[in-house]
């Protein structure tokens, strides 16, 4: 069976970028269709990314905290782990959110077409569904087809013991010995979960620091802390991976490489994600795609074809849900005739590890590269009453100020709930706040976000020429 649908706006992909664009377009009165290959809306983020990982990280955090209070005289004993129940919990969280999205689509009269969509021309997409095929004829299209994990040719990815993040989130088993390949956010988050569940974790990272996008001083304390959990092999790379009956054998070379191949029960390959740009026949619509699969856009999220837009992971870094959401809003508003464009000062990044590592605005590295006359101010949590009271005194809050204007241009927080504390710093940068604005704001005591005001006071104390 086949049908043809005509619409003002079609959105290819229902991840955070896609559903945000579709809902905004519908709210603006545009006739809107979403094409999604899976039956659940929400893309990577809701189904196999942000949300399930945070559901599991929450459990891991509670387990770690329960263990930590034994130092204060309270012991719970060893946890028993019911993997099926934990998986059910995670799936329930996902179901609640994806079900909510389906309801919101219905409420807005956004039509969802299930199946795999490919462009057939500048104004049409053919969707191959399980039971029927659909041709969607559109006035405007928004490509939000997202990304997938990078695979390497020398790794036998088809072996069930070689995981990507989606496999790791399935919680099929708790491997006794697990290698996390790549010390970025996703690898460290999943490593944190499996460590809490009882796996012995090795992390191998080619560069000389984990979370390479963050400043070195921000990552230093964090690295010290995670060494209690992980055997960390920095400046080391994997050179071969062999699947044998009794395990996955991994050979490494570099500073911390073991001399012999190591046997693992599972290997999580988390070395980054690649865009899906080459899989949608966008060239049939005249859309340019680069050699890696990214689609280039202008500030209005418009591709080289003026009625076709692209948003989210498929247009480039940072591959983060909140970036895609804002891009989606811009694309929908531009289509509706508004003169909106995407030009954020800040896109926050957070590793929801233990402790969390969070940063927003410029890093020190970027400020240096841009030739900005900057100064940093750090408030160590060892001086925070709240942090000491809750066993989090190894955290820190770091602010970066423009030394000439005293305006805040960046910030980072390492510590418990660091990601939540980032909100104030992001807003301060967007609003053009200076150090005095932050220092004079009365922060509640004792809170962790007090550290933001106190770091600003550190900067104020270090200068004598207040404007
Ligand atoms: P996606 O979410 O990838 O959605 C694309 C959608 O398009 C998918 O549903 C796909 O099925 C569909 N699709 C693709 N091609 C077609 C086609 N041809 N036809 C039909 N449908 C198609 N980001 C954060 O901001 N915070 C986090 O904490 C966070 N944690 C993460 C944890 C993990 C383990 C992973 C893997 C990612 C995480 N991310 C996080 C990243 C985040 O998930 C992505 O940045 C975000 O999902 C990108 O949104 P998107 O809409 O661009 O694409």
From TrEMBL:
It catalyses: N(6)-[(R)-dihydrolipoyl]-L-lysyl-[protein] + NAD(+) = N(6)-[(R)-lipoyl]-L-lysyl-[protein] + NADH + H(+). One of its GO terms (molecular function) is flavin adenine dinucleotide binding. Its cofactor is FAD. InterPro entries: Class-I_Pyr_Nuc-Dis_Oxidored, FAD/NAD-bd_sf, FAD/NAD-binding_dom, FAD/NAD-linked_Rdtase_dimer_sf, Lipoamide_DH, Pyr_nuc-diS_OxRdtase, Pyr_nucl-diS_OxRdtase_dimer, Pyr_OxRdtase_I_AS. Disulfide bonds join 45-50. The keyword Coiled coil does not apply. Residues 8-328 form the FAD/NAD(P)-binding domain. It comes from Paraferrimonas haliotis. Keywords: Disulfide bond, FAD, Flavoprotein, NAD, Nucleotide-binding, Oxidoreductase, Redox-active center. The active site is a redox-active disulfide bond. The keyword Plastid does not apply. FAD binds at residues 54, 117, 313, 319-322. NAD(+) binds at residues 182-189, 205, 272. This is Dihydrolipoyl dehydrogenase. Residues 347-455 form the Pyridine nucleotide-disulphide oxidoreductase dimerisation domain. Binds 1 FAD per subunit. Belongs to the class-I pyridine nucleotide-disulfide oxidoreductase family.
């Amino acid at each position: 069976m086949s049908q043809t649908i005509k619409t003002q706006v079609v959105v290819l992909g229902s991840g955070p970028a896609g559903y945000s664009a579709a809902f905004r377009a519908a709210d603006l009165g545009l006739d809107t269709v979403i094409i999604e290959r899976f039956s659940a809306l929400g893309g990577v983020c809701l189904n196999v990314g942000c949300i399930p990982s945070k559901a599991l990280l929450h459990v891991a955090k509670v387990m770690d905290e329960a263990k930590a209070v034994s130092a204060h005289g309270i012991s719970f004993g060893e946890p028993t782990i019911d993997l099926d129940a934990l998986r059910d919990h995670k799936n329930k969280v996902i179901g609640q959110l994806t079900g909510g999205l389906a309801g919101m689509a219905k409420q807005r009269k956004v039509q969802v077409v299930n199946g795999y969509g490919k462009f057939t021309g500048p104004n049409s997409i053919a969707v191959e569904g399980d039971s029927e095929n659909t041709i969607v004829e559109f006035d405007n299209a928004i490509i939000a087809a997202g990304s997938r994990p990078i695979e390497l040719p020398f790794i036998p990815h088809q072996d069930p013991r070689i995981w990507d993040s989606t496999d790791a989130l399935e919680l099929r088993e708790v491997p006794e010995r697990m290698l996390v390949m790549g010390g970025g956010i996703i690898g460290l988050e999943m490593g944190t979960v499996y460590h809490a569940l009882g796996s012995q974790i090795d992390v191998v990272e080619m560069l000389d620091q984990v979370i390479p996008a963050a400043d070195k001083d921000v990552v230093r304390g964090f690295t010290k802390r995670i060494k209690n959990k992980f055997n960390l092999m920095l400046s080391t790379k994997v050179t071969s991976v062999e699947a044998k009956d009794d395990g996955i054998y991994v050979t490494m070379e570099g500073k911390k490489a073991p001399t012999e191949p190591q046997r693992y029960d599972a290997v999580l390959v988390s070395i980054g994600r690649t865009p899906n740009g080459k899989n949608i026949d966008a060239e049939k619509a005249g859309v340019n795609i680069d050699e890696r699969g990214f689609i280039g856009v202008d500030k209005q999220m418009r591709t080289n074809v003026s009625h076709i837009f692209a948003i989210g992971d498929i247009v480039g870094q940072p591959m983060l849900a909140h970036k895609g959401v804002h891009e989606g809003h811009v694309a929908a508003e531009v289509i509706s005739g508004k003169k909106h464009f995407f030009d954020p000062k800040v896109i926050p990044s957070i590793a929801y590890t233990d402790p969390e590592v969070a940063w927003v605005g410029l890093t020190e590295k970027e400020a240096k590269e841009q030739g900005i006359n900057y100064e940093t101010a750090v408030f160590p949590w060892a001086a925070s009453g709240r942090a000491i009271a809750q066993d989090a005194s190894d955290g820190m809050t770091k602010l970066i100020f423009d030394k000439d204007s005293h305006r805040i241009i960046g910030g980072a927080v390492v510590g418990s709930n660091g990601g939540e504390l980032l909100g104030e710093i992001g807003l301060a940068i967007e609003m053009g706040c200076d150090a005095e604005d932050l220092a004079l704001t009365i922060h509640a005591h004792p809170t962790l976000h007090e550290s933001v005001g106190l770091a600003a006071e550190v900067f104020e104390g270090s200068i004598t020429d207040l404007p």
